[in-house]
Amino acid sequence: MVAVGGGGRRRRAWRWAMRAAASAVLWTAVVQLASIAGLFRPRVLADCGGGGGVGGVAGLAALAGEDTGAARLSPPALVPKRIYKSNGYLRVTCNGGLNQMRAGICDMVTIARHLNLTLVVPELDKRSFWADPSDFGDIFDVDHFINSLRDELMIVKELPLKLQLRTKKRLYSMPPVSWSNETYYLKRILPLARKHKVIHFDKSDARLANNGLPIQLQMLRCRVNFQALRFTPQIEALGRKLISTLQRSGQFVVLHLRYEMDMLSFSGCTHGCSSKETEELTRMRYAYPWWKEKEIDSVVKRLQGLCPLTPEEITLVLKALGFTKDTLIYIASGEIYGGERRLAVLKAAYPKLVRKEKILSPDELRPFQNHSTQMAALDYMVSLASDIFIPSYDGNMARVVEGHRRYMGFRKTIVLDRKKLVELLDLFQGGALSWDEFSDAVKESHKSRMGQPTERKIIPGQPKEEDYFYANPQECLGSNGGLRDIS
């Protein structure tokens, strides 16, 4: 009886052990299947689901437009790739500063798509005044750029090896004719691309017309500008820190003070400069052979409204527009010509004057030092986020930021009428106008220059004189200021 009882216990123990092992295997399989299911769960469900991980709070924050680390764990699904027979490769060397190159890149994508070419990731200008060694991938997120446009065209990081070897010996290089329409590219450029297999544009600025283009080309320009050209994660992170710091202090104004050495030299604008400074700026202009205009009458140019306002002039304008002494002003610019001495009047009037160098530590800025385009990218982000944006000159950054702020809901951008302001400033400083008369006149002349919806000015045969597409991409703007469906 005892022996039989002991055998029963052993059998029961053996059955229990087998059941436990089977349960363990089953639970392991369930956990693994759940993990696999989680990987393939639709992103919308993952973002909106309850609990921790990618769902819950992180998902709601992502839907609300907030940037969280958890929300970035789930990558967006790739858009379907467009299949087409490529007519060749387009290589591009962009010229100018960050925003001149940015607009040029948008145009080059649009041209490559129109001609069914494969675009090589653009090369950036390294010969400009700043001699910035930054490559495309140092400023923009390359993979996002390629993947977000794959339903429109193929973009590659480099030419195939066979074509690399071929182009080292011989490369067909040219600057396209400025302000050209789609017919020029179809009739003149496409045959060249088919013949040479690789065509190189050695300039990208203003190579596509502002107006008269098919709506789909205009919409693609916007899609590249507002969606595909995302800054690198490093730039985005530091830019968000700048914005967050400024917003904690309340509303803030960005003043794009284009009073830098290169601008003054090449424009010939020397109002307020000493004779020694004027000589220095003139020497610099003559030292750069590709800047064709050498003899410039600074007085005439200023009266025509073609010069950036000086720090002293912009101080009077800000006061006249009603900005009080406690206004927080962020200066978006490179090094101001004349340094702290030229900013003294502006600082006295607006003590809460800051720059990125004041907000960020030297360690935070060190990776971006000596890279003017990367520093400009930080200013670009802050300019977009500001409550009011005021450029002292209508250069490339001013115009591209203006257009981007229109897209973001017609955010307030005060576009200064410099010709009118110079007239009023001279009258006031000469004693012909009282302060109240001057202030009233400045306010009156800028009522319709606050970034409201407006029709882009078209001047047939004079593309340089008409409104720039990227300052007012009206084809892409809905009634609420957002993009129409461009995907």
TrEMBL record:
Query: Its pathway?
Result: Glycan metabolism
Q: Which UniProt keywords apply?
A: Carbohydrate metabolism, Fucose metabolism, Glycoprotein, Glycosyltransferase, Membrane, Signal-anchor, Transferase, Transmembrane, Transmembrane helix
GO biological-process terms attached to the record:
fucose metabolic process
Q: Which GO terms describe its cellular component?
A: membrane
Cellular compartment(s): Membrane
Q: What is the annotated signal peptide range for this record?
A: none
Q: How does it sit in the membrane?
A: Single-pass type II membrane protein
Q: Care to name a GO molecular-function term for this sequence?
A: glycosyltransferase activity
Main localization category: membrane
Family designation = Belongs to the glycosyltransferase GT106 family.
What's this protein's name? O-fucosyltransferase family protein
Question: Can you name the source organism?
Answer: Urochloa decumbens
Lineage at the top is: Eukaryota, Viridiplantae, Streptophyta, Embryophyta, Tracheophyta
